[in-house]
Amino acid sequence: MTILAIETSCDESALALIETRTNNGNFECRVISSLIHSQAELHSAYGGVFPSLAKREHGKNLPPLLDKLLTDSNLTSKTVSNEEQLNIRAIIENFKTELSGQNPDLLDSLEKAQFLNSIPLIDRIAVTEGPGLEPALWVGINFAGFLSKLWSIPIVPVNHMEGHIIGSLLESDKPSDKWQALKKLQLPAVALLISGGHTELVKIGPKMASGAFKYTIIGQTKDDAVGEAFDKTARLLGLSYPGGPNISRLANEARKMKITPEVKLPRPMISSGDLNFSFSGLKTAVLYAVRDYSKIHKDLDDNFKRGLALEFEEAVTEVLDSKLRKAIDQYGAKALIIGGGVSANERLRKQFEQTATEYGLDIFMPSRHVSGDNALMIALAGALHLNEDVRDIKASGTMKLGTSS
User: Fold this and answer.
1) Is the peptide bond before 120 cis (omega within 30 degrees of 0)?
2) Domain total of the chain
């Protein structure tokens, strides 16, 4: 089965194609293509993601991105007959009527699309329905709806956070003729999902008959997500968006230069006794540190920035690792999954690997391509839900993964 996936939950327009099969009762997949168009440079002027801009850019990006995906993939397709061409025009006109005024950029971009001249042999469309920025999510959902009518194939809705979990189990994200199984996950497992919009601890298991997992949220942030705290701290230090890589760069420079931070930051909720997080206080502590330093010095010294970035990264690492260890003990985890864009942070990865080694557990972390928002993880997660009943899909900015403990 060939699956096209669409991801537009935030500021990456992403599409992916995979092929799936069952081999001796086991799920296998083949990565055909995975494309990501980042909007980070556009949003950097705002110091974060601007929802209406993200929506507009998704509308512009998706049709040409699909043209490239289908061309690069050499996917078999059939030529559109004159009668089918008339039907396509009718579908486009209906689509214009349905979305009139909602997303003119998507409609304009569709008029120039080359994929309208043929029908690719795709069996399913997987699309992110939440959580995320609702204006952005709707662009992907509407595009999926259009393609569903155009190609007469069903849509599979996918939870973005499940995508981060399943994506971490992928052996290789490279397009290839080779088939691969997902890495074997012992249950129960604990996933730590860390991104710009989320910080969650999730218990995984048991596995259901469909092949999908049961998820239970066992801990989450009470305010800012950890990635948001990285971005806000970077902004306070005069660094560009996205902030995570820039904070990590300065922290690594501080380690190499053996800089001792001038400020000691708090470790919020590290001794709270539960599995929840809070990062707004950490961000505020950085604000106060910058303010106090600025009262004495005209500008922020580079070494002060490096030291504060180092202390911030260490504070985040200690809090996340402490909660992860508590979750392992409390739920008897047999494996760990780390997912989300912040999982690309080198300091965090090393610490989590050390924790897994100490506990004697397997740990699964995504490749750099799959750590951020991408459609490949959406395709994989969607493949686990192919046999579920078709239902209406609506964008949900606050969609939860499974149940809460």
Assistant:
1) no
2) 2
